[in-house]
Amino acid sequence: MKSVDMISERAALDKKAPRRWRVIACIAIFLLAFAVRALTWHDTRLDVGKIQTSVVADYQRVAGLIHEGGVSSFFSQSSSLADLNNLGHPPGYSLLIASVYSLKASAAALQMVQIALDAFSAVLIFLIVAELFPVTAGLVTGLLAALSPQLAWNSVLLLPDAISVLPILLAIFLLARALRNPRIFTFVIAGALIGVSCWLRANAMLMTLFFAAAVILVIKERPGRAFAWRFALAVICGTVLIVLPLTIRNAIVFQRFVPLSLGAGQTFLEGIADYDKQGTLGIPGTDIGIMKQEAVIYRRPDYYGNLFNPDGVERERARLSRGWSVVRAHPFWFAGVMVRRASSMLRLERSRLVSTEPAITHSVNNLDGSSPSATISAQQIVSNGVAAPGAAAILNPGGTTLVLMGNANRYGRQFAAPEMTTKSGTDYLATVPLRISAGRMMVSIENSSGKVYASQFIEPLENTSPADQPARSIQFPFVARIDDHVRLVWSNEASTAPQPSIEIGPIKLYELGPARFLWTRYPRIIIHAIQTIFISAVILPLAFTGFLILICRRQTTALVILSIVPAYFLTVQSAMHTEYRYVLAVDYFMLAFAGVALHCLGSLVLKWTSRLSRRSGA
């Protein structure tokens, strides 16, 4: 069977809108994507600091060392950067942090940079699809990427995963463009962009080989096939040119061969442990477990507490060797692991949607000396609160705290505190000190009609006795849109304890000031409604349909270009421990296939409608 080459695809492209409409589409997609991500940041800015705190701290620590010592310290054997513990991640993201913080030392400034870069990624996937199909298919894809809650959520995290996708998308775009007029320089740049992604995250380290193979596949039927190998080598050389300086730097500073960073062995082992639920392989599933085990195996107490220093390179090689020995001993089991892990990459992450209500704009960190607008003592909570059947609120001696005992139900409301009055158009913060001893509960603040303004899950720390559970104060920031009455509500949430127990103190409500951006409620409602469709049950069938359409239409070139990144992650990354944020790039191409399917389905509907109208007119 003869595949449809770029000639037939160009026939479809000739029907595309004029270039100015493409420019307008790019601007519209960027602005929409930026707005969705800005709203997501507004909703989550008080929470993102709690995500991957140790990893974020590590990036920021290295960024601080770079900022203090300057670029020259990066190549010095005597600087603070010459520590193997600094090789847990490639330095690209730390360099970006240092650059942004040199202008404005603010997490919000860094997040705005990431939001802008990620919004441009939505533009790039539009351009990629519009290069291969009619512009309407690209427009649908770009809009899907702009509105995706998964992409928006990851763009505001203080992690490099979202922005590491941008150079990969740009490389794909250059590849799609270069097929019309192949030039060595263009393929070198495409390879170099993969190298840039590697500086941010090491996951794409071998992706250049998949790019090279794709170049050979899509150029093989064109005149001058002998040049295909040269273009493929140009891609590889471009990647090497960007990665090699980092490899040389590591060799100079650490006297070891480390292409990008350390961590592959640790990730490999933890990925195996993820699927060894019974622990029969004896591999720990956490960083702490690996360090503790190595300290025992090698009789080196100094190994505990540090993943890479001392002897980080040797320990990493031993970890890789140990992982491969498991693979050789259980090849079919590990193949099944890779299949399950690959299938998980095709499922969309359950992410926070844009809230239908605006978030607060006032700071919650400067309450020292502030007087609460309302305070409900422990005595008032016991006297005026409402307990569910089987639940009880018991005042402690002294009367300053109380113990709330839930019933035996795994779910359901347990206790509601007395109401507090709020004013319309005002930012508020409710606080309550607590210490949970057993069970798992959800604490919510809701109004008299049951609308939930904010909620948090509370559960005990693992491997900690009830008496040693720490006390903490939880905060509930919210905007009162109307004059209202609110109260805190405790509910069982998949509690494993026979009777959940939580000790709480007085509830305080602070009036922070007038709320702003209330007008955003209207676009928020629309965006929130659209984002509800971004679930695997909707997007995955559409993407699979788009994939089948390209196969049936024999659009080989487009199929290969859109499959490079998914094929890489589904094969190479599936051998390692994987989180949703590691494989964000796959989401873009799932949306691309979904965009193609929606475009084709829309075209069919228009044709059927046109035929029906002609028949009715006749």
Verbal overview:
With 618 residues, this protein is α+β, with helices and mostly antiparallel strands. It contains 20 helices and 13 strands. Among the domains are: 6-161 and 524-605, no CATH class; 374-516, Galactose-binding domain-like (Jelly Rolls, Sandwich), CATH 2.60.120.260. Strands 1, 3, 4, 7, 10, 12 and 13 form a seven-stranded antiparallel β-sheet that branches. Strands 2, 5, 6, 8, 9 and 11 form a six-stranded antiparallel β-sheet that branches. A hairpin with a 6-residue loop joins strand 3 and strand 4 (402-405). The longest helix has 34 residues, at 584-617. The protein is globular.
Keywords:
Jelly Rolls, single chain, 618 residues, disordered N terminus, globular, 7-stranded antiparallel beta sheet, alpha+beta
Can you give me a brief rundown of this structure?
Helices cover 53% and strands 13% of the residues.
Mean pLDDT, rounded to whole units? 89
Specify Rg, calculated over alpha carbons: 28 Å
The fraction of residues in strands falls at 5-15%
Shape: globular
Number of helices: 20
Outline the low-pLDDT stretches: 1-16
What structural class should be given to the helix and strand makeup?
A: alpha+beta
Write down how many β-strands occur, each being a DSSP E stretch of 2 or more residues.
13
Proportion in helices = 40-55%
